[in-house]
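To: structure desk
From: M.T.
Subject: fold request, one chain
Message: Could you run this one when you get a chance? Sequence is below, nothing fancy, just the single chain.
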Amino acid sequence: MKKIFTFIAVAAMAMAAHAQYECNNPVGEDGRYIVKYDCAQGKFAASNDIMADEAFVFAIDIKGTWLENWVKGTPEVAGASRGVACNFWTSYGDVDGDIKRFKQINGTVYGMTLCLSQAMTGAEAPKAVMTDSIVYVTGQLFGFEYTADNAGAKWWQWDNNPVGTTFAPNSDGAIFATRPYEAGRAVEDFYANDFPESMFGFENKGYAAPCVSIAAGVEQTEVKAAKSAKFIENGQLYIISNGVKYNALGNSVK
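Reply: Done. Structure tokens follow.
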């Protein structure tokens, strides 16, 4: 527990040296933002009823922030679009470095489907799923530009604003925190490319487009795997996918 408080204290001191930004998310009873989004209801949940090994939609409402106007502006890169990203860290280690980009859910709300325990890296990550563990998450919201073939056509955009962190006015510096861990709600492993809607071409574990069906995505992947097979014939590699035979170049053969 001492280490957790040290993480929050260090994070708070680091944030004091930078600008602080707020967002339009509701604030929970713990003084931190509610980031869990209820896709079925089209609104933020009543609380962050989240544990480290379950999937949830991590959402941010940029209404009233500098990002709201920035995403509406003209991209600097020809043919690009503008989006919202977040560098974030946890009290049990870093999150996979590619898991940053949100997708628009509606209006000024942007989100991603996330499972913290699957997305976290490092030796401390297993402690997030020990009884009563709470994961504290800190981070920075910023803008980026992207094209169909370049997820970071223009990265780390602050629109001449000072670099800063995002947290509620009376928070301890964390954007949000999970509820104390208890077993029984773990989600199956999933990857960003398990689903029809791409997350900017990434394939990272524990990361997906907002509001996807995890069960459907995992099932679809398992079906694809069951219908695919690789084999060697006369010294050549062939692949069977959905009943069609392909060579190593991807051309169908008889």
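Reply (cont.): The chain has two domains: 2-212, 226-254. Let me know if you need anything else for the meeting.
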